[in-house]
Design goal:
Helices cover 28% and strands 18% of the residues. The chain is built from six helices and five strands, in the order E-E-E-H-E-E-H-H-H-H-H. A five-stranded mixed β-sheet has the order 1-3-2-4-5. It is globular and about 45 Å long.
Length: 176
């Protein structure tokens, strides 16, 4: 992996200061190292409300490393992450994440609607029954990602893209 350096991804012309409570994501001076070798350094950017952002680059450029560091899934050598002006740890429930690949037992007998409903367990709890309103929320999320008609299809019977949409719907219901 080649070390990558990035600067501000947005020009905040609305007059908001970095890290303010109306900026969904602010990254300050982020450095990530593997075995003491920096792979990303001095990364900083704001993502404003409503922005559609793509993280692009060649294989090994650090795209996944950046996202994992922002999500606190890997340690940072330095830097600070803020979600709506507060630490990531404080606002982690407001963030949804859909990895490139899910580690899933594809043969487990669960349909797309069940997978999306699993995103509601922080609200429902593991010991409480799933109610109609929860299934309606999950169905709405599947509709929003364009696969509502596949709600009752077993996850293993979906295409790779349909599986990704299912996991995106699960992230959407987490109230991120």
């Amino acid at each position: 992996m080649n070390p990558q350096r990035a600067t501000s991804a947005t020009n905040n012309d609305a007059g908001h200061s970095r890290g303010s409570s109306d900026i969904p994501l602010s990254v300050y001076d982020l450095t990530v190292a593997y075995h003491r070798k920096p792979v990303l350094w001095d990364v900083g950017f704001d993502i404003p409300v409503g922005a559609l952002v793509g993280v692009v680059g060649p294989n090994g450029a650090g795209k996944s490393t950046l996202l994992k560091a922002v999500m606190d899934l890997i340690p940072r050598a330095s830097g600070r992450i803020q979600v709506f002006g507060k630490s990531y740890q404080h606002n982690r429930r407001r963030v949804g994440y859909v990895p490139q690949r899910e580690t899933v037992d594809w043969d487990f007998p669960v349909d797309a609607l069940d997978v999306v409903t699993m995103g509601l367990y922080s609200e429902i709890g593991w010991c409480f029954p799933i109610r109609k309103k929860h299934r309606d929320i999950a169905q709405d999320a599947l509709n929003r990602v364009g696969i509502g008609d596949l709600a009752h299809r077993q996850i293993s019977q979906l295409s790779g893209g349909q599986q990704q949409r299912t996991f995106l719907a699960r992230a959407l219901v987490q109230d991120a």
